[in-house]
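Quick entry, no commentary yet.
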Amino acid sequence: MHTPKTIHMKISHFTRLAGLLLVAGFFISCGSSKVNIDQLVADNNYDQALAEIDKRLSEEPGQPDLYITRAEITAEMAQDVEPELRKDHYNQVIADFESSAEMGANDNQLATIDSLKQQYWKTEHNSGLRIFEADNESNVYQTAKSHFENALIIRPNAVSSYQNLAVAEFNLGNIDAAINSLEMAIDSSNDPSAELYETLGYLYLEKGDPETAADYYEMANTDMSEDINLAYGLVNAYISNSNHEAAVSLLENLVEEYPDNANLRNVYGTQLYEITSEIMADLKEAYEDTDASLAEQIKVEAVGMGEEAETQLIEAFKRDTSNTEYLESLAVFYNNLAANYMSVAKVASEDDKSELRSRADRLIEFATDFYGRLSEMDPNNSTYNEKLTTLNKLKNN
């Protein structure tokens, strides 16, 4: 009776051992089949690593760390292709970072995401800057543009990247794109800098939209007397938009602040002439309407404005007598104002004809003198010689 029982117990004992060994073998088998993603990455087996991550996420999506790892691998792969081909990579990187957060990434993981974003942004942004410093060929600007576009995928609110992207686009001849980039920069900034508004003003001026250019220059909200470049930009915008009164108002303050700046005085004088010319048109209309009282009032205004324009142009030339531009400004001023007085004299009252013609004759003398100087400096300049011929005919009439 005892022997069978003993035999049964031994069999039972081995059976249990076999069962334990089977279970242990099962776990060993499972453990050895799990792929080491870190090792795959270390071996540059990116595609296999991504496939493994995709597999695990399909089985269990709620693994924030795997999304971060996939983003890191994708960012590494981006560096293996040309800058213009990296957009899809970086879009996937950002998508994975967002998925990680959605799947409950903890504080440490979120901090890792922020750090990686900064790292990837700096890589692309600084690459673009280095290209700017290296060369200025058009193909270089195209590459720099791609770097800044990549940087903005990673950090869509990076104002400096928008600014540099605009520089690349402008140098590639795409002003509209540059304008759009700078407007995006303004939208991305809580406190846009005066530089952003100034640059937009310049771009709109280059585009041929002086009205919008002036708006942006004005939005810079800077003391123009302290920023001469901004002031020049706004003056140019006013002039291009034929807003001579606004230009004169600004130039008056600038000349007072920078009295020895010959260029400012020269531009100021030419703008004062433009206003004088408009006044002369009003004077002609008053004579045509036989409104003697109004004509007298306008005539005094025209004389005063013309004399102020002359003063500023002379002061500019005095400060730099070697500058032919200032000499030519005076010649053109005297010539054009003489033409204005001659035109008005034709319709003026008999009492005023002599005075107006006398002023025209004086201006013709000055114009002849200055065009004569210009012709001596540049004897082959046909424009100067033609002007002298016309002026001499007028003097002899």
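second:
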Amino acid sequence: MIFLSLGFGSLSNSVLAETSPDPSAYVEQNFAQKAHKPLSKKDMVLKFILAMLGVAASSVVIYVILSMYNKVSNGVPVFSKQHSNLRTPENFKEAINSFLDKTDWD
């Protein structure tokens, strides 16, 4: 005889199957008998609400963490006004000049 466990880590659902005829048929029969019933609408709604509560809770946790981070950090970085030109250069020469101006190349 071979020891087969039909539960997920549970020893209470264990059975002994004989190896002589076909142990897979015995296992298939027991799994077929233990098949789960389909969820009712009430159970589906309850699972959906629990999932949405998990989403809401994680959103609150992220909001709190980011709020604490903003209080600790120095705030929004200050950019210099002289380099605020975000226009795309028309040609290669303008691109080089723009790069040299923004990097304060001497």
